[in-house]
Amino acid sequence: MQRTTQGVRIWPYLFSLPFMLAYLVFHFYPVIYSLFLSLHDWNGIGDKTFVGFQNYADLLTKDPLFYKSLYNTALIMLISIPVTILLGMIMAYVTFHLTAGKRLFQTVNFMPYITTPVAIGFIFSYMFDWQSGILNQLLIRLDLVNEGVYWLQEPFTARCVIALMFIWRHLGYFMAIYLAGMTAIPQDIYEAAKVDGSSGAHTLVTITLPLLKNISVFLIVTSVIGGFQLFDEPKLLYGGWSANSIGGPDNAALTVIWKFIDNTFISDNRFGYGAAIAYTLFVIIIFFSMISYRLSAGKGEKE
Which is an annotated Pfam family here (predicted)? Predict the structure, then answer.
């Protein structure tokens, strides 16, 4: 009987072994090797030269573009995340109270989230193009401007366009998460508030929003973490994968991941330096993950 029990206990480990092996080979090992690589100078072909923390020192003291990429990424997130949170919450509230066409409204608003970044880049490139862009043609026909606006050639407007791409793509996801949270709230609470004479706006502010606080914290923190990995939208907006332009006008569209890919695979072929960028970004992401944990833990302790 004891042997049979031991044989049964070993089966879960055997079933999980393929996943664990794949994880160790394709995920854990590259992460550890990247840390090892960040301590070396290597162009991908010749011998590796150990330089210690020189790559990190050069990145933090001699590379102003790294701080420019951090500034661009932070500014894009500051523009896009609050707007996406607010609009996602409003759209979820409207969808929650719809009586007809609810599923169609959800589907239409969620479609941008599953659209490929390549398609999104082409859509916004044509929309904000100086000569043939739909937006400029509309503004000219309405006599709001005399000539087309250089949306993609000005640093600030370039960042705003990228932020708009982020909002348009993730709004449906935010709406779906908030809608799930609103659905999980017991209806007895709303019925009791209605009996007490609470209006719709008062119920939203005093009941719905406080009960959605954990969801808001989750969306804000995960959006910031995802924002630091922003790459597809700005890269595809400025000419696609075959373009030689890096970072847009005055490097206003250069994000941390774009700089990492450029230094590692395109311009310099400095694999050790690129690994240092990746691990510096990893530390930043860990920092925001700790913030997420503390916010969630504090909320749980109060409750």
Answer: BPD_transp_1
| Each residue's pLDDT tens digit, 185-205 | 887 887 787 777 777 677 777
Full-model pTM:
0.83
**The pair of three-digit structure tokens given for residue 291, joined into one six-digit string:** 């913030």
Q: Which uninterrupted H or E stretch holds 10?
A: helix 2-23
Helices (H) and strands (E) in the chain, counts: 15, 2
The tally of domains found in the chain comes to 1
- Rounded distance, CA 215 to CA 223, Å? 12
Q: What is the span of the domain harbouring residue 138?
A: 64-302
* Contact (CB, 8 A) for 215 and 181: yes
Residue 24 lies in a domain: no
**Range 23-46 burial, b when 16+ CB lie within 10 A, else e:** eeeeeeeeeeebeebbbbbbeeee
CA 222 – CA 128 distance, rounded (Å): 29
Q: What is the CA radius of gyration of the chain?
A: 24
Q: Distance between CA 246 and CA 265 in Å, rounded?
A: 13
Beta bridge partners of 49: 41
Which CATH number fits the domain that encloses residue 197? 1.10.3720.10
% pLDDT > 70, the chain: 91
Tell whether the torsion through CA atoms of 188, 194, 200 and 206 is positive or negative.
Answer: negative
User: At which residue do the structure tokens 């401007």 appear?
Assistant: 145
**Inter-axis angle of helices 64-96 and 102-110, to 10 degrees?**
170
Give the CA count within 13 Å in the CB-facing half-sphere of 155.
10
Phi, psi of 41 (to 5 degrees): -105, 120
